[in-house]
Amino acid sequence: MYKIAVAGTGYVGLVAGVCFAEVGHQVTCVDIDEKKVNVMKSGVSPIYEVGLEELMQKNYAAGRIDYTTDYKAAYRDADAIFIGVGTPEQPDGSANLSYIATVARQIAESIEKDCLVVVKSTVPVGTNDKVEQFIHDFLVNDVRVEVASNPEFLAQGSAVHDTLHAERIVIGTESKWAEEILMGIYKPFNLPIVSVNRRSAEMIKYASNDFLALKISYMNDIANLCELVGADIQDVALGMSFDERIGSKFLNAGIGFGGSCFPKDTKALENIARQNGYELRTVRATIDVNKDQKTLLYKKASKRLITFNGLKVAVLGLTFKPGTDDLREAAALENIPLLLEQGADIYAFDPVGANNFAILYPEGKNGRGSIKYVSNVEEALAGANVCFIFTEWGEVKAVKADMYKELMRTPLVFDGRNIYQIKDMETAGVEYHSVGRRA
Ligand code: UGA
């Protein structure tokens, strides 16, 4: 078993740390935020993620995981240090590497024995060469240190499961020594390992995410055409999915992809290409289609209604997908300001994301309109003139077609996630608009 330190306790770092502890390694998670460290020590997760708290508590009690702000103590005698800090998008679409640089310098100044530094954060191809050089430049003690790439493929909402049951582990190393350490760390997971060089590993991460994003934008593009020619995107997707070369996953048309990864990684890869004198046209198209798709429901509703002014608007779902409280790049964030500008009185329901949304859009009067956060779907729908479905939460999917008819003043529904069968909504007497299907 290895002594592992993890820098950064966001999605990537914390989940990795907890899962390493779960398979028996000795883990110390480092974060600069003392309050957050104390919260984690008490067994509370700073992020909403199914199953994470249970594992935090279990492994803390077993003494396999600890949390600290004292990076020196954590890094000093670690066999491996995993970096999972953020690489946020900069205004020009490139990745901000300043957090990685800070951690790299702290590592260089702290380690007292041979150590493998493993970058889990998504970084532009070639960054890990620079991280290694940077660490060597600042190294205080005479020890062996190398940098490996080990991109993360977990999805929010299923992060723990995705880590413990990953379809593959990708490791990018430049020496046998580094490869053996990483192979050893991942051995207890008993998962397929793809071992490549460092730059290829960095590229696998971007190429995978951007391919999935491309798949979504492609389906959205086809969905828009389906509406014009009278085809149904769900039937089309079903027909396509039997071809194993296409696969059945990530074919759901809707209101575009959000989250912290696809939007950022598409722009980052486009940027990497541009810096190398190449134009990635498929990725540009992915971004363009997604941008338009985000406000599709608002555009559809604007065609149907003369005004939103004074209308009660029910909003079901605020987060970028179910199972998370994350709002980053969520379609709701694009549509709600437009609705408020037009004087809509919004009643929003989200089982987990409402508090975060209220920080950005506090309850009450907002521009010409207003927003109120309600604790159940019924309250949102009662007396509403129109309903928007932005996130396919279980609570939303559980709403029967009849309920829209019964509760709303006018049963007019714009569904960005194609939750319902058109037939069911028709039978219930609901005017139903979705994506890529008959209006
Ligand atoms: C994504 C990838 O799925 C992970 O493999 C990757 O590790 C992660 O990014 C990352 O780089 O950290 P995540 O952003 O958590 O994970 O969420 P996804 O489940 O992939 O969904 C992203 C967006 O695509 C959501 O807004 C979702 O609604 C949308 N989507 C997904 C569709 O519109 N259609 C689909 O068929 C699938």
TrEMBL record:
It comes from the Bacteria. GO terms for molecular function: NAD binding; UDP-glucose 6-dehydrogenase activity. Keywords: NAD, Oxidoreductase. SMART domains: UDPG_MGDP_dh_C. Residues 314-422 form the UDP-glucose/GDP-mannose dehydrogenase C-terminal domain. Pathway: Nucleotide-sugar biosynthesis; UDP-alpha-D-glucuronate biosynthesis; UDP-alpha-D-glucuronate from UDP-alpha-D-glucose: step 1/1. The keyword Oxidoreductase applies. Substrate binds at residues 205, 250-254, 258, 321. One of its GO terms (biological process) is polysaccharide biosynthetic process. It catalyses: UDP-alpha-D-glucose + 2 NAD(+) + H2O = UDP-alpha-D-glucuronate + 2 NADH + 3 H(+). Coiled coil: none annotated. This is UDP-glucose 6-dehydrogenase. Its EC number is 1.1.1.22. The active site is at 261 (nucleophile). Gene3D superfamilies: Cytochrome c1, transmembrane anchor, C-terminal (1.20.5.100), NAD(P)-binding Rossmann-like Domain (3.40.50.720). It is an enzyme of class 1 (oxidoreductase). NAD(+) binds at residues 31, 36, 87, 122, 264, 328. Belongs to the UDP-glucose/GDP-mannose dehydrogenase family.
